[in-house]
Amino acid sequence: MVDRVSVDNLTVAYGSHSAVNGVTLSVPKGKVTVLAGPNGCGKSTLLRAVRRLHAAQSGKVLLGDVDISRLKEKELAREIGLLAQSPSAPEDMRVEELVRLGRYPHQSMMQPWSPEDGDAVENAMFGTGVAQLRDRRLGSLSGGQLQRVWIAMVLAQETDVICLDEPVNHLDMAHQIDCLDLVSRLNRERGRTVVLVLHDLNLAARYADRLVFLKEGKVVRAGDPAELMEEKLIGEVFGIQCRVIEDPVHNRPMCIPMRNTSPRFAVEA
Ligand SMILES: Nc1ncnc2c1ncn2[C@@H]1O[C@H](COP(=O)(O)OP(=O)(O)OP(=O)(O)O)[C@@H](O)[C@H]1O
């Protein structure tokens, strides 16, 4: 299988703390890869490093066979789109204005706004169901509406590699499925390579071709969801007891959490 992105022995640190610690990982071309793991295990940092928003302390990220450190910012932005966790924009900005910002890597003094830019913005807004919100100010939207606008902005970028960090955060069930189905269609019908961070293991198992479990800045296991969705391994990575059964609709593994092996919250101090 060809790798679209490869992470080679990557370490990313905040001061003396290595959030990503010697990670080697392949993201196969034209597949959906899902990163999962407990809070603070380095998923967002890894994704941001893939988009070169964090410098590597050591190791490298390759796009095909090119080291991303050798690419110009707009070249990289035309290849890899990232919806980061908790992005921010001015509250008085309008929806369509934000989505249009997704087109910045395609523009220059020589190449101003084009009909292709307009089409990409419209497709992204209709695909994510935010077209009817186009004139609303961001500050007036609900959390889920705003999240869909951000997803539209990244999709308007029309990159071959689409990275979404917890894209279904704040979304109701219908919009979670709509969002992941849209990304899945972009993958199947347009051959886009997709990397998602998801906390919901059942959605991860349903949409991933390749699942990656991370813990404490390292990859614990990567592979077919059917191999990783295993009670003992989930217990080790996430610290819960669970049962894994087969989802009777999609025939994918489904995790039923039962008990936390070391509860983080106490009723009394
Ligand atoms: N700006 C920062 N400065 C210092 N430490 C940071 C910073 N951002 C993240 N960290 C630390 O780096 C580690 C990895 O954080 P990261 O956000 O990558 O984890 P995550 O797996 O995405 O977590 P979550 O599931 O909670 O979103 C954590 O210990 C976190 O506290």
UniProtKB/TrEMBL annotation:
Name by which UniProt lists this protein: ABC transporter ATP-binding protein
SMART domains per record: AAA
InterPro entries linked to this entry: AAA+_ATPase, ABC_transporter-like_ATP-bd, ABC_transporter-like_CS, P-loop_NTPase, Siderophore_ABC-ATPase
Xref: SUPFAM superfamilies: P-loop containing nucleoside triphosphate hydrolases (SSF52540)
Domain ABC transporter as annotated: residue spans: 5-241
Topology with respect to the bilayer: Peripheral membrane protein
Pfam family, one: ABC_tran
Family, as annotated: Belongs to the ABC transporter superfamily.
Residues spanning the signal sequence: none
Statement: the UniProt record of this protein carries the keyword Translocase: no
One Gene Ontology term of the molecular function aspect: ATP hydrolysis activity
Annotated keywords: ATP-binding, Cell membrane, Ion transport, Iron, Iron transport, Membrane, Nucleotide-binding, Transport
Protein localization: Cell membrane
GO cellular component, one term: plasma membrane
Coarse class of the protein's main subcellular location: membrane
